[in-house]
Every structure is written in C-alpha cells, then in structure tokens.
Amino acid sequence: MRFFVFSTFCIGFAALAACGKSDDPKTMHSAQADSDIEISADGDFATNLQTALIEAQPGTTIRIPEGVFSLETGLSLDVDKVSLVGAGQDKTILDFKNQAGAGEGLLVTADDVILTDFAIHNTKGDGIKSKGADRIIYRYLTVEWTDGPDEKNGAYGVYPVESDDVLIENVTVRGASDAGIYVGQSNNIIVRNSVAEYNVAGIEIENSTAADVYGNVARHNAGGILVFDLPDLPKVGGHSTRIYDNQIVTNNTRNFAPAGNIVAGVPSGTGLMVMANSNVHVFENTFTDNRSAHVLLVAYPEEIKDDRYNPLPRDIVVRDNSYSGGGHNPQGILQPLAMAVGGTLPPIVTDGVTSWTTHSEKPNLVIAEEESIGYLDLGIGRYPVDPMQVAPSTTRPKSDPVDEPAPVVLPQDKK
C-alpha cells in the first residue's frame, strides 16, 4: 500500500521536474482559501490533481471542475481529513479508458476523507478503493464501465476494506466484474440510497461486522445483494448485518466474473445470497423477478484449511419481505437441483447443509414469512456432498428467536 503511494509521488514529482515548475497558478491549482483548492482544467490536469492530493493538508477541500478528464495513471490520497469534491456525479468525470497498468482509479489510505460529486469511468482495476481509511464517506459518486458488462472490467466499483465507520450513500455503480459496492473486513458500515446495476454482484458485505444496508436499488446484476464470510482472510467471522427496505429486482444479467473468482459461482438470477455468515436479518425488502431465487442461504462449499472459519450460515432471519415473480428459470448450480424438484424454485431456498468436516451444528434459520411464501431446503446435508443422502424438503426448519442487531451509528453521519 505505502509503496504504491510512494511510487505515485515519485512519478508525479518526476513529471513536474520534467515540465518545470510554473509560477502561473492556472497550470496547477489555485488556493481560494487556506483550506480550499481549485484544480485547474488548464495544462496537465492529471499532474495538477495528483500534486494537490500529495500537498494537501488536513482540513483541505480539493475541488475538481466540471468536465470530462482523461487520465492515464491512477490517483492516490494519503492525507487525513481531506475532502475531494467535484461539480456533480454527472458533471465531473475522470475517465481512465487509456489507463496504463491495472491499478485503481483512486486509492485512499487516510482517515476522515470525504469523496463526493464526481464520477470515475473505465478503470483497468477497481474504481475507488480505500484501505485502512476510517470514517470515510462515499457520497454522490458514480463508478461505471461504459461499455457494459465485461469480464475485463475492473473488479470493484466502490471498495472500502479493513476500515471502521464506513458510509456509502447516493452512489451508483455499473459494470463491475466482481461487486459494484463492496465492503470487506470492516466494522460499522452503512450502505444506503444507492444504485447497483449491471455488475456481477450489486452490493456485497464480506467478512464484516455491524452493517446496515437499506434504501438501495439492486437491479440487473447477476446477484443483487451478497453477505459472505470467506476463509483465509485476516478477518473472518462476519456477523450482525441488517438488509432492509431495498428494491432487489430483475437481477438476471449473465454472470461475467472471470473464472476462479468466488462470485463466479453466484447463479445469475439471485436476489440475495447469504453464505457462511451469522446474525443476518433480511426484512421489508421488495424482491421482484429474480429468475433463479429471491433468497439463497448457503454454506461455503470449497475445501477449508482455516481453523478460525465456520462455513455454515447461522442465526439468519428472513421476515416481512415482498416477493413477486422469479424462480422460473434457475441458473448455474441451481439448474440441475431445480430440475430434480420440477424445474422451478420458490422465493426462499437453502442448501440444507448442517455439517462440514469438523463443523456440525444447527444453522438456526428463522423463516418468518407468511406460509404462502414458498420455501425449499435442497437437503444437501453435508459437505463433501453424498448424492445418495440428498433429500429436498419444503418443511421450514424449527428455529430459535434471534435478537436483531442495533442500528449502526457512525460518528461522521450527521443525519
């Protein structure tokens, strides 16, 4: 991480040395006030912007003007308490179509940063990544790959990781080959009022604790919203996520993830998928026309070598959601399983795994929907799978009550 920031500084410094430092503020940036820097569109815009990001002091607001700006190298910010502000997510566009290498469009490794009112297009790698960036705000941003779904697109659109107190709101992401909005290995998270469409996964919370995901639209992805916990990462044991008041509709885009990616196994047509996580509450969402299944609750299916890891979903609550259409054309691994039960799947599907090598326990799945809402336990039972023991069932599991996590409160959230 630090090597990337240092090397970016060196590249920017070398470029300035080669061009010669000008006293004309129009060629770099002008200070409106001690804490307000306006980036000029004249001259070398990329160098102007990266220099401002390097030279910023805590409390600085860097303003990017309206326009479409082509950049060939990624940007980086490693100064705390900086705001990067554009003229609007449809007015200030940083286009990385000619980017050299496969890095991020913007990498943030600082605390108390605000990113707002601009767009990033066509990065070779991730759109905007922040790592170890506590109390960050992503607000009124667009990240997009303008040629549509393609496995060559960057993996993640908005990508905070290893952070505390993450706020993502009014963000739009299109075309990510992994997840549009992804939060990983983090604590205290809010994702709200955002749109994720035409990604492999629309919104993903992974190996994280205390997340509220609400008021979002997840549409036209392969999978709408994912809550995963995976082994072999520095932080495992994700728990305490609330998914509520979201529109999760027509997530029927083909899965275009590169082969070998974990999300490549998500069946196209999945509304919401919970894998190997605990204390996840799914309520008051609207599920419409997701062709495989609206809700899919599963264990981690691959070989496990991480002794810290529990591969089973535990204490999952599904209640008070609205369902319409869907389940009529299951894809991926669900297709042959659906054929075995008549070709279609009900709104809520579980794999029925209760045992995985050294792990064996009651998952405690609380399916608290009206009886008219269909449910299917695929009856896999255990991994590795024994086909002779698979026994599908439509009987809802007996379960114990699970206390809902408290709402997430963030220190930087003034609402």
TrEMBL record:
Q: Which SUPFAM superfamilies match?
A: Pectin lyase-like
Indicate the secretion signal residues.
1-17
Lineage of source species: Bacteria, Pseudomonadati, Pseudomonadota, Alphaproteobacteria, Hyphomonadales
Parts of the chain that traverse the membrane: none
Keywords annotated in UniProt: Signal
The chain positions of domain Right handed beta helix read: 152-298
Q: Which InterPro entries match?
A: Beta_helix, PbH1, Pectin_lyas_fold, Pectin_lyase_fold/virulence, SO_2930-like_dom
Q: What is this protein called?
A: Right handed beta helix domain-containing protein
- Note down the stretches annotated as region Disordered: 387-415
Gene3D superfamilies found in the cross-reference section: Single-stranded right-handed beta-helix, Pectin lyase-like
Organism listed in the record: Hyphomonas beringensis
Q: Which Pfam families match?
A: Beta_helix
Could you tell me the superkingdom of the organism this chain comes from?
Bacteria
